[in-house]
Amino acid sequence: MKMETTAVDSVTVVRCEGNLDTNTSVEAQDTLNQLMDDGAAKILIDFEKVDFVSSAGLRILLASAKRLSSSGGGLRITGLNDVVNEVFEISGFSTILDVFASEEEALQGF
């Protein structure tokens, strides 16, 4: 999985490409942990170019959201395609995590 980060004001935007599954979850978790260790408190993950998310990927998102929330920050998700959105819906993660239709919407009030 390819992960590129940029800053939009006080928000760290992580643009992902590929699959977030058991083969890539450790690398993704390391990247997110490093961002948080470096002081990122507000993270927006853009899944526009992500084809698939497994339960291992969902666990990483949940762990990161909890860590950010406990320190007064937050995690938001945007750019879900139909397949990934269905995984979020079926698993209930669309109600557990903050999912937005667009990056602009996700950045508002963050």
Can you give a write-up of this model?
The protein is α/β, with parallel strands linked by helices and 110 residues long. The chain has one domain (2-107): Transcription Regulator spoIIAA (2-Layer Sandwich). The protein has five helices and five strands. The chain has helices at residues 25-37, 55-70, 82-91, 93-96, 103-107; strands at residues 2-8, 11-20, 42-53, 74-78, 98-100. A five-stranded mixed β-sheet has the order 1-2-3-4-5. α1 links the parallel β2 (11-20) and β3. α1 (25-37) packs parallel to α2. The radius of gyration is 12 Å and the shape is globular. It starts with a strand and ends with a helix.
Features:
110 residues; five-stranded mixed β-sheet; Transcription Regulator spoIIAA; 44% helix; alpha/beta
Strand segment tally: 5
Whole-angstrom Rg: 12 Å
Fraction in helix: 40-55%
Number of domains: 1
**Would you state the CATH class?**
Alpha Beta
Principal-axes geometry comes out as globular
Question: Which stretches are low in confidence, meaning pLDDT under 50 for 5 or more residues running?
Answer: none
- Report, as a whole number of angstroms, the end-to-end distance: 26 Å
What fraction of residues sit in β-strands?
25-35%
Mean pLDDT: 96
What does the largest sheet look like? 5 strands, mixed
Examine the coordinates and then state which fold CATH places here, giving the name of the CATH topology: Transcription Regulator spoIIAA
